[in-house]
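Appendix B, Record 12. Input sequence as logged:
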Amino acid sequence: MKPTSLGQVAVLAEGLLLNGSPDRPVTSVHFDSRQLEAGGLFVAVRSERDGHDFLPSAVAKGAAAAIISD
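Logged structural output:
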């Protein structure tokens, strides 16, 4: 993945950056908090499990940000 910034992610996702610097780099994207690397973007997906339940784990692993629906 080409490094991008939180501001660019917000634009691409048609979302809002609620906190943090729009210039902060995002180095990877993960849907599974177990695979998340520091500086990565966590995408909380609702499926068999609700990805929002894993936000604390993503934060503990150093997520740069999270895309959430709530």
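The radius of gyration is 11 Å.
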